[in-house]
Amino acid sequence: MAFGIDSIWLNCYGDLPEHLLLCLEMAKENAQESPIREDLSPLPPFLGSNLLMQSRGVRHYDFLAESDDLTVQLKGPKGLPLPAVVVRLSSACLWRLGGGGWPAIDAAVAWAHEVFPAGVEVRVSHFHQCGDVQGWVPSLGDLGGIVKRADDLDIFDDDGEKFEEEGLRYRLAKGDALQGVAAGRSNRLRASVYDKSKEIRRSGKEWFRDVWAQHASYNPDLPTWRVEYMYGREFLHKHRIESVEDLRAHQDALWRYGLAWFSWRERQASDLAHPQRWPVVAAWAALAAARPESAALPVARLVRPKLVKLSQGAYGYLSTIMAMTNETDEEAALGRLLAIVRLDKGASRMRDVLVKKKQRYASVARADSTGLERLREIAEARRAGGEGVGAVHDRWRKWGDGFIGSRNRDAGVRR
């Protein structure tokens, strides 16, 4: 029925003019002295409305200015890798201008160029994309049809309160209504499915009914459910979506990715082992059909593991094995671990895996080697200074010579 961008944050990178910063400081002081806080900011108007200066900044930013359509955070502390300005468009502005939110986004980019006369780079920080449907009302009994890649699942009752896991059966027996579900992480990808009709009554956003009324299929007597995906900066960067133009080019690919990442399907008792093969509910098919076919989402960047993180993981596994086997010697525990791996995988298969991983991470091999040499230098210096780290370094070196060096030797447990 309705589809569009419901929220968006834009990061603006550039140098703010010195005279603008001075005027912002004066406006902020005036706002602190004004009881009604109606001091205008020195920023350009947005869509014909002036931005009001707030008496305080927010988070790492010194200045905050707002209008009904726009919220702006300005000037973060020097030395931190933060954008000079963060812009958030309101949901009302995005939907009021129509066009799936793009007229409002284009206006925000044009406004940013006014603020940065010397030039600005605008990147998408994160955004929410949603579709609204009628004629489908999921219940608690339908939760078994959710197929997702996220590990977590939050379930909300008719009052908007999260279900306690131990109380779910009790509420099922009572027939409590389902308000919505959510899964995933906000800095990556998070999905939410909820009764938008009830949400707008609680939030006071009754103007949204006018948006729905623009569609001939809208029935004000029926509930409207929303399927919403929140794409965080980490996810967008991973998939090479940096600029507003990147987002414009791939918004439909993002939508289809989200619909596959978290979907609601018709549970098939005859094929419980393959839930991804279950047919999607009619609402999901309608949401997919609402957008045109598009090219696939850009391939995700390869996440290259860091040596420190790998070492921490190895330490965790090793300590667990030592605790479970009552082993007190690290080298003996490593030998036990190697024996288990070789019995389970086989030496030849391990060599095949190593070949593939070497090819995968060939581009970072030199950087890792440089970092490793630096770690050795630090450890040697600390040992010479009597800091007690030398013994750890010696064990690590013996382990490296034996355990890692054994990759190129025939199979067999090192004793």
Written account of the structure:
With 415 residues, the chain is α+β, with helices and mostly antiparallel strands. Among the domains are: 126-289, no CATH class; 307-408, no CATH class. Helix content is 42%, strand content 18%. It is built from 14 helices and twelve strands. The protein has helices spanning 18-33, 91-96, 102-115, 168-174, 196-203, 208-213, 233-238, 244-261, 282-289, 307-325, 330-345, 347-360, 365-384, 390-404, and strands at residues 2-13, 52-53, 63-66, 70-74, 85-89, 121-134, 146-148, 154-157, 178-184, 189-195, 224-231, 262-264. It has a ten-stranded antiparallel β-sheet. Strand 9 (178-184) and strand 10 form a beta hairpin. The radius of gyration is 28 Å and the shape is globular.
